[in-house]
Amino acid sequence: VVITNYSGEEELEGINNPEDTSMGSRKIPFTKEIYIEQSDFMENPPKGFHRLTPGGEVRLRYAYIIKCDDAVKNEAGQIIELRCSIDPETKSGTGTSKKKVKGTIHWVSAEHAVEAEVRLYDRLFTVESPDTDKEKGFLDYMNPDSLEIIPDALVEPSLKNSKAGERFQFERNGYFCVDTKYTTPDKLVFNRTVTLKDSWSKMK
Predict the structure, then answer these.
(1) How many C-alpha atoms does 17 have within 13 Å on its Cβ side?
(2) Are residues 16 and 90 in the same domain?
(3) pLDDT tens string 35-50
(4) Are 66 and 3 in contact (CB under 8 A)?
(5) Fewest CB atoms within 10 A around its CB: which of 57, 87, 122, 178?
(6) DSSP 8-state assignment for residue 88
(7) 97-150 tens-digit pLDDT
(8) What is the domain extent for residue 28?
(9) Which residues share a beta bridge with 187?
């Protein structure tokens, strides 16, 4: 995402745990170019999709309300860039605007984001009791999608110095811990331990 009417850089404040404010806050750098999750934009959205769409507005968590003005495509017709504008009067926490939107999405600064490997674990078997079938063995019910590895995920810079075994909540995605075996000083690896409910995924 390129924010066409913004320049410079600022630090915003994000709550570490929305359910427990005693866990403090963190600084999040905000810049002209940011990344959002691919699933948070749809060019032709169905009814009930409250994330970013052409001409639509959403709030960037802890930041501003943005509007998608244009979607840039490559020669193959794939969207490679969103050109958006912010409403400068809607900065989170300022109380200067009564403007409201239905959707809130997450983001990271393109300049300051930290690369990490993220491992998404799902159910090991495709049925609840794989050992009760007398005609098939439990291995026949192994879930081929029980592990999805995202090798080039981008996370907030506040996670750069995370230690093995530390636990975090990635809002809208679940709870994660830093892998104790594969994390190195040069490579962060996060394992998802608990998923969160996603109302839109259920609708799909």
Answers:
(1) 10
(2) yes
(3) 999 999 999 999 999 9
(4) yes
(5) 122
(6) G
(7) 778 899 999 999 999 999 999 999 988 898 888 888 888 888 888 999 889 999
(8) 2-109
(9) 184
